[in-house]
Amino acid sequence: xxxxxxxxxxxxxxxxxxxxxxxxxxxxxxxxxxxxxxxxxxxxxxxxxxxxxxxxxxxxxxxxxxxxxxxxxxxxxxxxxxxxxxxxxxxxxxxxxxxxxxxxxxxxxxxxxxxxxxxxxxxxxxxxxxxxxxxxxxxxxxxxxxxxxxxxxxxxxxxxxxxxxxxxxxxxxxxxxxxxxxxxxxxxxxxxxxxxxxxxxxxxxxxxxxxxxxxxxxxxxxxxxxxxxxxxxxxxxxxxxxxxxxxxxxxxxxxxxxxxxxxxxxxxxxxxxxxxxxxxxxxxxxxxxxxxxxxxxxxxxxxxxxxxxxxxxxxxxxxxxxxxxxxxxxxxxxxxxxxxxxxxxxxxxxxxxxxxxxxxxxxxxxxxxxxxxxxxxxxxxxxxxxxxxxxxxxxxxxxxxxxxxxxxxxxxxxxxxxxxxxxxxxxxxxxxxxxxxxxxxxxxxxxxxxxxxxxxxxxxxxxxxxxxxxxxxxxxxxxxx
Length: 481
Known about the structure:
single chain; alpha/beta; 6-stranded mixed beta sheet; disordered N terminus
């Protein structure tokens, strides 16, 4: 079995004897990775599906032949450490012996005492058959696994995934151009109904997808369905975020709304509920308190950040300096100097320069002991909202290169885009106006949630569209000094 490296490397940022601990650290220790069994014959599109949804180029494991070691092997990727896969590769499930191997694997995982070792979800992948190509949806192998679903899986979440939707669409456009409903009719009659009839379950979870570049279809629906089902299977009476749903939301790299929703859920469990009081942060400095919130928010987004730039002192200092301006009039926030970084047309000409004090100098307020003083809640509100907005822009910026390492260039470009946007100006103005209104604990929490949920897609798209073209692979220093 592969040795799984530690998933979160940021605990060293906090004092050893610190009483305040990030909620995400505790949850990730319980379940570092979502564990998925992907079932389907070679060629049905499993690799491209995994690559698109989880932002990995390949999932690696030791070179092993077909057989027990293949399905037992944990496939992981350094590009996404919230994911572990098991693949049915090498198994023809119609064969009696291999049927028993798969069945035994599932039964064993169900009995694992630690939740991190259990099987969290199964994706059963079936290539959509083309009507005149003599292809069948259910052959012996597929029927055998569906039988396993009925006999063995029990409460283990299983989703039927019909792959290569683009192939069917292309065929129907050529052969039946005057029948716009032909694709949906074929899917219903030749894919969904046969599965429902074989399993005897008309409510079986299913989704149709295409992973082909520029013809993606259904991938976000698969992510939402997986998250919804995982959240139902691994839930708590208090409806709190648990370890497996957190791992599942963190692993996917297509749907930023899930990141935001889980950030809210994690925040509501502990620290966001007392932003206007000192109940959760007794005797700690503002910087210590913001660090805990910072770790929780960044951990949920799960960027491919091997050098931990998003946890670095430099990035955190920039965020705290940005937050400090929430108390200043909007006109006092001048544009950041670019030092002629970009020539006309947005062509990169030099490094992305931000002022040195953006990463070094901090106001005295960050070292003050947290207390329920006037306007303290505005700093916390601004930090949560600003950080969430910055990460949303960065997530969109990196969307086409999810498997690439995060660089300081990408982070600085994102920070500059947000700092100079009307979005930040309006956000800070809204928080300043809120200061004079009802500042009860529930009112503050509700305000934060509404501010990080409203109009996000439009604002993120606008920020990314206005960015100049820059080589995001170039990993610049934080400053030139």
